[in-house]
Write a structure and sequence with these properties.
The chain is α/β, with parallel strands linked by helices. The protein has 10 helices and 16 strands. Strand 15 and strand 16 form a beta hairpin. The chain starts with a strand and ends with a helix. The structure holds flavin-adenine dinucleotide (FAD). The site of flavin-adenine dinucleotide (FAD) has 38 residues, from helix 1, strand 7, strand 10, strand 14 and helix 6.
Length: 402
């Protein structure tokens, strides 16, 4: 049986950041991905300021070949049915990348032993060791490791096989995005979010390398077809969309661990990071917290192995601020000041608009939220967390505090 110090499952930003820290510390590290690399990932590919800083500091400059045009995303464009599109800018450069290339760059630059088309199947805890079962070319392989870092995304097989209770009763959403060749009257420097009923909680549009990217999110169990059709009809009518051909489709599942304050940093010698541990920011931004948590997990494992420290306790402590920021991102009072790209010098969203427009936009937003955000327990959880932060000065995070 092959032996490693650490097995990292999943070569997205979280897994690569973890692998890099382990390798920098001299640990024998295996980084696996079930897909053939480079792989696509349903994502807008907007690299927030915090993510850029992390990559520059830990991996070096992002190669130019990774970028999509127009290179820089200026911010978000919110569409309100009664007032039209409102553009909101960030104070920095948000880079536009193709996730296939960006993630592959990180995985290779991690320096770990990288194996693609290698799927994590399950694990057995054996004293101070973990015996992990992997599948490659339809063959099962066993590896023995001291620690396992689970970075396998929002629908984590590490969690499903090792701690299935984490997902008990958890509501799920799906996201789908399609790439088209065609024409549309929209500004390619912005990610559009349409606050229009009947198209799910997050109907979006962006453009990259002249490809029109249209997507929507929806609760698992609902059909995406009618929502996507409505969105396309809406864009034809309001943004002059014409489609010449369909180029690609991407989809994935999204958990609701952040708004429900149900993070899972791990158990025993298994540490979870990124989407898999439940970190997410507003609008679905998740690369910044995947990188940060991956780095913290790698550092904790290093101390666990080198100094005999309790890696999970160290990790819970270091990653707690990332959980707090994620909760902030669902807290209306904290959201704006904690985004991963600075917006502090920008005027308010409705700056320069009359009182009438502000009231109409507010009404549109309330109607939209009431109609599209029906995740069980979410409103209660968000209100509870926000009230606690306001009145007691901090969040209670069961995953870190118990
Ligand atoms: C539609 C959409 C748009 C988004 N846009 C943005 C954006 O513009 N900017 C941003 O910052 N964030 C965005 N996000 C969020 C971002 O994509 C995630 O937060 C980020 O990818 C999380 O990184 P991760 O490393 O935790 O997981 P992932 O990037 O999901 O990586 C997980 C990896 O694990 C692998 N894997 C899964 N199961 C196994 C297994 N059993 N064995 C081996 N490998 C396995 C997968 O193949 C995958 O490569 C978006 C998300 C969605 C859904």
């Amino acid at each position: 049986m092959e032996r490693y110090d650490v097995l990292v499952v999943g070569s997205g930003p979280g897994g690569s950041a973890a692998a890099r820290k382990c390798r920098d510390g001299g640990l024998k590290t295996l980084l696996i991905d079930k897909q053939k690399l480079p792989r696509r990932k349903a994502c807008s590919g907007i690299i927030a300021n915090k993510s850029q800083n992390y990559v520059l500091e830990n991996f070096g400059p992002i190669p130019e070949s990774v970028y999509g045009k127009p290179f820089i995303s200026r911010g978000m464009a919110f569409y309100f049915p009664s007032v039209g599109t409102i553009f909101t800018d960030v104070d920095c450069y948000n880079l536009y990348v193709w996730r296939s290339k960006f993630d592959h760059f990180l995985a290779q630059a991690s320096g770990a032993d990288l194996e693609d088309e290698t799927r994590f199947v399950g694990l057995k805890e054996k004293g101070e060791e973990i015996e992990a079962t992997l599948e490659r070319n339809k063959t099962l392989i066993q590896v023995a490791v001291k620690y396992l870092i689970g970075a396998d995304g929002a629908n984590s097989h590490v969690i499903r096989s090792f701690a299935p209770e984490v997902y008990e009763g958890l509501p799920w959403a799906s996201a789908i995005q399609k790439y088209y060749e065609g024409k549309i009257d929209a500004d390619d420097r912005y990610l559009y979010w349409f606050l229009v009923r009947g198209m799910g909680p997050f109907p979006w549009l962006n453009l990259k390398d002249d490809q029109i990217i249209i997507g929507c999110a929806y609760p698992v169990g609902e059909k995406f077809g009618p929502k996507l059709e409505s969105l396309i009809e809406f864009l034809k009518k309001n943004f002059g969309l014409t489609i010449k051909s369909e180029l690609a489709t991407e989809g994935c599942m999204a958990n609701t661990m952040t708004p429900l304050n149900r993070f899972f940093p791990g158990r025993g010698r298994v540490l979870m990071v990124g989407d898999a541990m439940g970190l997410m920011h507003q609008g679905g931004e998740g690369i910044s917290c995947a990188l940060a948590s991956g780095g913290f997990a790698g550092e904790a494992v290093l101390q666990g192995i080198r100094q005999g420290a309790d890696a999970l306790s160290l990790y819970k402590k270091s990653v707690r601020p990332e959980m707090e920021t994620s909760l902030d991102q669902f807290n209306p009072l904290r959201m704006r000041s904690t985004v991963a790209s600075d917006t502090s010098r920008q005027p308010g969203m409705f700056h320069g608009r009359g009182f009438g427009d502000k009231m109409k936009a507010l009404r549109d937003a309330l109607v939209f939220v009431k109609s599209e955000f029906q995740i069980e327990g979410m409103t209660r959880s968000v209100l509870k967390n926000s009230a606690r932060r306001l009145l007691l000065g901090g969040y209670h995070i069961p995953a870190a505090d118990k």
